[in-house]
Amino acid sequence: MEIIANESKVRNINKKGPMSATRFKRILLKVGGESLIGDRSYGIDPVSALNVAEQIKEVYIKHVQIAIVIGGGNIFRGIAGSQNGIERATADYMGMLATVMNALALQDALEKTGVPCRVQSALQMPAVAESFIRRKAIRHMEKGRVVILAAGTGVPYVTTDTGAALHALELKCDVLMKATKVDGIYENDPEKNPSARRYSKMNFTEVIMRDGIDIMDTAALAMAKDNDMPIMVFELFKKHNLVKAVDGEDIGTFVSNDVKTEFSK
Ligand code: UDP
After folding, report:
1. CA of 18 to the centre of ligand 1 (A)
2. Contact (CB, 8 A) for 185 and 202
3. Number of domains in the chain
4. How many C-beta atoms lie closer than 10 Å to residue 133's C-beta?
5. Cα of 163 from ligand 1 centre, angstroms
6. What backbone phi and psi angles, to 5 degrees, belong to 137?
7. Which of 18-27, 123-132, 189-198, 205-214 has the lowest mean pLDDT?
8. Is 242 a member of any domain?
């Protein structure tokens, strides 16, 4: 009951509130599992999940359509499992299951903030999530629901970054918003060199060619580049950063085939 009451409150905000002109109208947000870990060394911290949900709500009430791909690194990563002796494909499926747990935790947090939300999974799990159906995912967004996409691509040997690139393309998102721990791409490591400059824009070719830029898996980057899906790299841990990035403020780094590489002013 409470969830439904909250949902209708937010829907009313959505109906009555001014339609603000955001830079992007439909986004694919890639959040790593670590965004849910908080101060723990493992698992899900409900307060951190709520913080992520609050950031998403700030964008949702601006009528931005939102699909989310959630990782599983706070619980299980296939590579780590295979290093400990589990067959790689099996370990990867376990990693995908971890993303389903995170998706349910994020759904719970979003509903607590009043944002209507559906989980779709690339691995069939009808008792807890809808199966991923592209047209249905689009319909959910059009109807004002956030869609959380669990289990990445549904196949092993890749990560949720690849799932994010793939889903951003098939759901015709304007941008893939990649949340990272650093607030964008720097000319060199800002922790070692505090005067390192941040790029506000970067051409895909440069991101792929330059050594030491580790924002996403190479497979995901190549897929985004080849299919003209821009990527906004930004930090989610700072409050209001997601809405600022969607509004077009100069935070993070915007990576695209159509921009010239520039430093932030
Ligand atoms: N995974 C997979 N196929 C996919 C997506 C994920 O096999 O399409 C597995 C893989 O083992 C990965 C784990 O699920 O390590 C958790 O995802 P990821 O490492 O991308 O999580 P994140 O680092 O974003 O938290």
Report:
1. 38
2. yes
3. 1
4. 11
5. 9
6. -60, -45
7. 18-27
8. yes
The verdict on the CB of residue 92 being under 6 Å from ligand 1 is yes
In a domain, 105, yes or no: yes
| Residue located nearest, by CA, to atom 1 of ligand 1 | 159
Domain at 164, CATH number: 3.40.1160.10
Q: How much distance in Å is there from the Cα of 232 to the middle of ligand 1?
A: 20
Asked if residue 114 is part of any domain, the answer here is yes
Q: Is residue 180 within 6 Å of ligand 1 at its C-beta?
A: no
Considering only CA atoms, which of 240, 219, 216 is closest in space to residue 255? 216
Instruction: Record the tokens describing residue 207, joined without a space.
Output: 């991101």
Contact 242, 30 (CB under 8 A): no
CA of 80, closest atom in ligand 1: 15
CA-nearest of 109, 135, 110, 137 to 121 is: 137
Domain range for 239 is: 2-13+24-263
Which candidate, 8, 30, 1, places its Cα nearest to that of 160? 30
Lowest average pLDDT, out of 8-17, 18-27, 110-119, 252-261, goes to: 8-17
| Residue 18 within any structural domain of the chain | no
Residue tagged 């999974």 (tokens): 121
**What pLDDT is stored for residue 16 in this prediction?**
41
Pocket of ligand 1 contains residue 159 by CB under 6 Å: yes
Alpha-carbon distance 243 to 222, whole Å? 27
Whole-model pTM: value is 0.94
